[in-house]
Amino acid sequence: GQQLNQSPQSMFIQEGEDVSMNCTSSSIFNTWLWYKQDPGEGPVLLIALYKAGELTSNGRLTAQFGITRKDSFLNISASIPSDVGIYFCAGNSNAGGTSYGKLTFGQGTILTVHP
Amino acid sequence: SAVISQKPSRDICQRGTSLTIQCQVDSQVTMMFWYRQQPGQSLTLIATANQGSEATYESGFVIDKFPISRPNLTFSTLTVSNMSPEDSSIYLCSVGQRGNEKLFFGSGTQLSVL
């Protein structure tokens, strides 16, 4: 099946630093999504990307849909303590039929921010 | 985005018993999706619940183990049957937008099986 390789697995940074994480795949995705999950909560959608090359920002977050449609990255600028959590990339191949709603998730990046 | 309410938020169950998880959405949706997140792992789709038809299960998941109901366009249940410790996970309900290209998730049900 499809797999997403997300890196790094974990990051320990100082408050104010910038963060970058990425996902790569051997298959093409038509939609890339980035989620953040806090302990005891479901994932919250941060950014959705719909076409190759698209660069989208949401506050201090910026994400890009790779030109090859096989990768995406997420940057967080000027990190703050509340950025702590697990960040997941997810891809949707939109193959139609029952494939809609079937997201393939990366393994997650655990972010720790030291004040 | 839709408001998705799930309950219970957590439960501790004995092996061999069953637990039914409820998911309520504040708007009508055609499809609802049930995901599982095993400890320290990523999310995996269990099944897609369509109103008025049987759920569609992903490879590795079967109806006898995870029966799903979808009585109307705002509600669904997932039952985890004959539980074993390997079923200890977070179970998440989700709904989509833009043709289900992007999904929104409920807060999940943290299940521990002893």
Number of helices of chain B: 0
**Derived structural class of chain A:** mainly beta
**SSE string of chain B, helix = H, strand = E?**
EEEEEEEEEEE
Radius of gyration of chain B equals: 13 Å
Number of helices of chain A: 0
Give a short account of the largest sheet of chain A.
6 strands, mixed
The radius of gyration computed from the alpha-carbon positions of chain A, rounded to a whole number of angstroms, is: 14 Å
What class, by secondary structure content of chain B? mainly beta
Largest interface: A-B, 26 and 31 residues
β-strand number of chain A: 11
Q: Assign an overall shape of chain A.
A: globular
Largest beta-sheet characterization of chain B: 7 strands, mixed
The CA-CA distance between the termini of chain B, in Å, is 36 Å
Residue fraction in strands of chain A: over 45%
Overall geometry of chain B comes to: globular
What distance separates the N and C termini of chain A? 40 Å
The percent range for strand residues of chain B is over 45%
H/E element string of chain A? EEEEEEEEEEE
Q: Could you give the count of β-strands of chain B?
A: 11
Task: Provide the residue-averaged pLDDT of chain A.
Answer: 92
Give me the oligomer status: heterodimer
